[in-house]
Design a protein that fits this description.
heterodimer, A: 499 residues, mainly alpha, elongated, B: 262 residues, two-stranded antiparallel ribbon, Zinc finger protein 511 (chain B), Znf_C2H2_sf (chain B), ZNF511 (chain B), Znf_C2H2_type (chain B), Armadillo (chain A)
């Protein structure tokens, strides 16, 4: 996927500023959609002929008569080239929403298209599938739902052999899946889950990426946690199928790992895991160790500066690991956590540094994993100390309030384990950093700082003196009127004065 | 953010677990007003914590991040013809040929030349259309298998199966790959456009060019793409039957025994 994308890069017509502005708008629209829980995105595969590339590819609006004419030509044209050409013209028209409307309102148009889709003329079939794909990409439900008569055929073709065609069918299905629950209510009984389970054995990378996309759309559905994922939902169940094992296989690091494919399946796993309906099953399939190894691999890729789009894969992997670590099943194997390798901590910090430079919005997700790793693990807390990672952690404090709170929480995880741990936290940069965070205005940040101070004073009493010498009391005073902080501020003041 | 230089070395070195420092908690640590408790945190699906990452994911899907543009042109080659006997299609791109081959010659019934989109449907077709034993057995038990992958239901008649497909699996009533058998004659003179088809003869049935002359009886045209499940079945039956004939059993009894083996 990465190289294919890079091969497709072309010089853009608009300026950089214009692109940035568009991207900001797009991002704002996506955020709004997410807050309303309406986050839906469709993927469009478009292959225009090269002679169009330079002309801005403006979609042509076709009128009713033209659509009819193209359909008739495609069905009954004398020459195969003529029929194919008619469908190509139709497809170009269908890139425009108005033509899409015209098409679906025309009686018999979908029936004709489905007829062409199932014809014995391979190239007509392909073009008909492309027309369907354009329609599936529409933002309007009525247009996407007009494609429903074709779905049984799209599913049938998934067990065929032509990889380009299968890829197209999968992307079309993925677009339709995400459209509405009505569509899914048809696709599930039609056997989409077994069809995907059979198709996932394809050796073609493009097919796998498309399958991952379609599956991720299915798993993102609102009703997925009740109706699609759990093993009890019989034939439409994801967890009861062989899909989870195959998904994990796609995520195993090694020469066969394809980043584009891995991204899709990592997101699939994330949607399953955060639904919290079958995580012990996944742990039983070795999800923790596979994901842990993948994390190491990602850190390695960062070090080799092969970082194009790495955060797209890192994000779901971090989320999967973090959520899985909260499962009780994690503790069962020999009474120890399945994920114990110290290298995971090293890899995580390499990724944190990468996020710090390239994608700071992902720092909280990385720190979330660090919290879940260290919370109940003396071993991982010891690793943080022995690998000298406290100072790099402190360097993240200024990034944002959310990040500060999480950094302080991780430090509390370490400190609460007792004197042996606090001894390694002091002397050092910790106390100055805490004095600095006490100057923040955010109540939660200050609150977490107070918790850490309390632990430090308790297990490392020598720190109190230094705290006093560095005007610690004045730093505390600033917050003694704050309702949420008062009690703790007072308690610390007492400790300091008595110490 | 500066990482210690030894960290990369640690990553490159083998797996290992740090020997934990001794844990020794004082009860005063969790005493009021302090409330910190070390605990792993879980976030459910729609939690706002995931907003940033989700937005990035969707930007990617919408292709903004990688600025996907048009696919490169298909590499063209000197024109060549399809090698399958009787097919005259010409191509100048390998992708087109691949798709043509798989569509038209990939899963072809060696008896009637109908092409199917998958091996699964081809197998079902051969059994149901060309296997006389299937017909006999189907009088005793449900033999018509549901066409949806993963569904193990079987039916007495093809009509019952169609009803099941329509009612349970929401398939279209005129699903093209489930045509009921019309006549028993081999389809040497198949006309496109069976009764009931509304689109102009575009079902996946015969090769677009007429097959010149069948070069050999169907049974000998065994290429990897032409399945003949019933030939093996027949051989198996014949073996069993010869044994049973030696033992003095009748043909019907032989079938009963065979049936119970399935």
């Amino acid at each position: 996927m990465w190289s294919r994308r890079q091969g497709r890069l072309r010089p853009t017509v608009c300026g950089v500023e214009e692109l940035r502005r568009r991207r900001r708008e797009q991002e704002a629209a996506l955020r709004k959609a997410r807050r309303e829980q309406q986050l839906v995105s469709k993927r469009l595969l478009r292959e225009d002929a090269p002679e169009e590339a330079g002309e801005g590819c403006v979609a042509v609006i076709l009128g009713e008569a033209e659509v009819q004419q193209f359909l008739r030509q495609a069905q009954r044209g004398a020459e195969e080239k003529e029929r194919e050409g008619a469908l190509v013209s139709l497809r170009r028209g269908l890139q425009h929403p108005e033509t899409q409307q015209t098409f679906i309102q025309l009686e018999g148009s979908m029936r004709t298209l489905v007829g062409l889709l199932t014809s014995n003329q391979a190239l007509l079939q392909l073009e008909a599938a492309r027309c369907l794909h354009e329609l599936s990409h529409s933002e309007q439900s009525t247009i996407a739902e007009a494609c429903l008569p074709a779905t049984s055929y799209l599913l049938t073709y998934l067990s065929g052999y032509s990889s380009d065609f299968i890829e197209l069918c999968l992307y079309t299905l993925g677009n339709l899946i995400v459209e509405s629950e009505a569509v899914r209510r048809q696709l599930l009984p039609q056997g989409i889950v077994p069809a995907l389970a059979a198709c996932i054995q394809s050796p073609h990378v493009a097919v796998l990426e498309a399958l991952g996309y379609a599956l991720s759309q299915l798993l993102q559905a609102k009703e997925a946690p009740e109706k699609i994922i759990p093993p009890a939902s019989a034939s439409s169940s994801i967890l009861a199928s062989t899909l989870p094992q195959h998904m994990l296989q796609m995520l195993q690091p090694g020469p066969k790992l394809n980043p584009g494919v891995a991204v899709e399946f990592a997101w699939c796993l994330h949607y399953i895991i955060c639904s919290q309906v079958g995580n012990p099953l996944l742990i039983g399939h070795g999800a923790l160790s596979t994901l842990g190894l993948l994390l190491l691999d990602l850190a390695g890729a960062v070090q080799r500066t092969e970082d194009v789009g790495l955060e797209l894969l890192a994000c779901p992997v971090l989320r999967c690991l973090s959520n899985l670590l909260t499962e009780a099943a994690v503790e069962t194997v020999g009474g120890q956590m399945q994920l114990r390798d110290e290298r995971v901590v090293a890899a995580l910090f390499i990724l944190l540094q990468f996020f710090f430079q390239k994608q700071p919005s992902l720092l909280p997700e990385g720190l979330w994993l660090l919290n879940n790793l260290t919370a109940n693990s003396p071993s991982f807390c010891t690793s943080l100390l022995s690998l000298d990672l406290i100072e790099p952690l402190l360097q993240l404090l200024p990034v944002s309030n959310v990040v500060s709170i999480m950094v302080l929480t991780v430090l509390c995880n370490v400190a609460e384990k007792g004197p042996a741990y606090c001894q390694r936290l002091w002397p050092g940069p910790l106390l100055p950093a805490l004095l600095h965070t006490l100057a923040f205005s955010d109540t939660e940040v200050v609150g977490q700082s107070l918790e850490l101070l309390h632990l430090l004073f308790l297990y490392q009493p020598e720190a109190v003196q230094v705290f006093l010498q560095q005007s610690g009391l004045q730093a505390l005073e600033r917050h003694q009127e704050e309702a949420q902080l008062q009690d703790r501020v007072y308690a610390l003041q007492q400790t300091a004065l008595q110490g | 953010m500066q990482l210690p230089p030894a960290l990369c070395a640690r990553l490159a070195a083998g797996p290992g677990v740090a020997e934990p420092l001794p844990v020794e908690r004082d009860p005063a640590a969790g005493a009021a007003p302090f409330r910190f408790v070390a605990r792993p945190v879980r976030f459910p699906r729609e939690h706002e914590f995931f907003e940033d990452g989700d937005v990035q994911r969707h930007l990617y899907l919408q292709d903004v991040l990688m600025q996907v543009a048009d696919a490169p042109e298909k590499p063209r080659v000197p024109a060549f013809a399809c090698q399958v006997a009787g097919c005259c299609q010409v191509f100048d791109a390998l992708d087109d040929y691949e798709h043509h081959y798989h569509t038209l010659h990939g899963n072809v019934c060696s008896f009637c030349k109908r092409a199917f989109p998958s091996g699964h449907l081809l197998d079902a077709h051969i059994l149901e259309w060309h296997d006389s034993l299937f017909q006999i057995l189907s009088e005793r038990q449900d033999m018509y298998q549901c066409l949806v992958e993963g569904c193990t239901e079987k039916f007495k008649t093809s009509r019952d199966r169609k009803d099941h497909l329509v009612r349970m699996h929401l398939y279209p009533v005129d699903f093209r790959f489930d045509k009921p058998k019309k006549s028993r004659s081999p389809a040497s003179a198949e006309v496109p456009g069976d009764s009931g088809e509304r689109s102009e003869g575009e079902a996946m049935e015969i090769c677009s060019e007429p097959v010149a002359a069948s070069p050999a009886p169907a049974g000998e045209r065994r290429t990897y793409s032409h399945r003949s499940v019933s030939k093996l079945f027949l051989k198996h039956v014949l073996n069993v039957c010869s044994v049973l004939r030696i033992l003095g059993c009748t043909w019907a009894a032989a079938l009963l025994i065979l049936n119970s083996e399935r």
